[in-house]
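Students often ask why inverse folding is considered easier than folding. One informal answer: many sequences map to the same fold, so there is more than one right answer. In these notes we will look at a single instance of the problem. The structure comes first.
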């Protein structure tokens, strides 16, 4: 009997109807409105509730805004009767010491702006120092270790097939070793654009008739939205740091239109025709990147129809993929 009662109790509890949260909230709101209309809430509480809430994480002022030191600020006083007299006295004191305070504030402001400018310039230099995307002055030519191969010709032949059908939008080049690649793509009538932080690469691209975005390529991909018909990154992956590699393909995927194509290539580490040191192929190469790694990056980023192809007769492989809805 006791066991049956316990079982019945559990069953009854489980059978209780679920609370209708929306109905409860509606009842509370109706009750609050009724009491407010009846004047049951203190007036000071009503005033406090009517104050607009502000986000505590408000945007911080820019460094330029805080670098300028103001010597004249609004005078206020919390005293109701003596307030005007207090404010007048403060103005008299401020005027009396202005001859001393103003030159100090102006000197400090000039110093602040000078330091800010130096910090900006230092930051710009640090951004370019050791960057994977910028080749230091005096570096060997890109892909200097591939004179035995017509790498540009083989790339153009492969891209001729891969870029036959594209959605509307620019064909964005993230990296290139030979300006002839740019000219070959432009000659095909493709809407080629390039993004680079390297001044020499930017100048060469403009000379080839290509529109250039001089900014960080990863930031450009992040901000451009799904507007691109194709993204080309020939020989880029071995140049990047691991963190940049992991960012690149997802950002490229998000920047492609539906049907857009992503193409990259790299030396095939399994080939017998490559030296042991990747820097002997290109001084900017940091590591070998296998075709399996590149394929996995594309698949993990949500790209479809991922394929690995040879780049002609060279010891290089290409990976192509496209974005699908």
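Output (designed amino acids):
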């Amino acid at each position: 009997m006791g066991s049956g009662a316990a079982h019945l109790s559990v069953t009854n509890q489980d059978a209780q109807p679920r609370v209708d949260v929306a109905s409860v909230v509606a009842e509370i709101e109706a009750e609050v409105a009724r009491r407010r209309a009846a004047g049951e809430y203190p007036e000071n509480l009503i005033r406090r509730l009517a104050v607009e809430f502000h986000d505590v994480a408000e945007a911080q002022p820019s460094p330029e805004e805080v670098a300028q030191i103001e010597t004249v600020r609004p005078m206020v006083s919390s005293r109701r009767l003596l307030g005007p007299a207090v404010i007048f006295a403060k103005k008299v004191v401020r005027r009396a010491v202005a001859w001393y305070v103003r030159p100090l504030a102006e000197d400090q402001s000039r110093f602040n702006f000078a330091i800010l400018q130096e910090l900006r310039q230092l930051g710009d230099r640090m951004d370019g120092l050791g960057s994977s995307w910028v080749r230091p002055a005096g570096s060997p030519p890109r892909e200097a270790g591939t004179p035995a191969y017509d790498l540009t010709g083989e790339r153009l032949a492969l891209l001729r097939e891969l870029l036959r059908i594209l959605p509307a939008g620019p064909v964005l080049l993230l990296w290139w070793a030979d300006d002839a690649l740019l000219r070959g793509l432009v000659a095909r009538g493709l809407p080629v654009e390039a993004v680079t932080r390297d001044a020499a690469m930017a100048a060469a691209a403009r000379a080839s008739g290509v529109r250039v975005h001089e900014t960080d390529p990863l930031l450009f991909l992040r901000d451009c939205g799904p507007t691109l018909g194709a993204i080309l990154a020939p020989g880029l992956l071995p140049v990047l740091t691991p963190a940049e590699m992991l960012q690149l393909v997802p950002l490229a995927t998000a920047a492609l239109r539906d049907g857009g194509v992503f193409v990259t290539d790299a030396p095939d580490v399994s080939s017998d025709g490559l030296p042991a040191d990747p820097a002997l192929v290109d001084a900017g190469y940091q590591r070998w990147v296998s075709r399996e790694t590149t394929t996995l990056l594309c698949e993990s980023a949500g790209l479809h129809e991922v394929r690995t192809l040879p780049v002609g007769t060279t010891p290089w492989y290409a990976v192509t993929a496209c974005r699908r809805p």
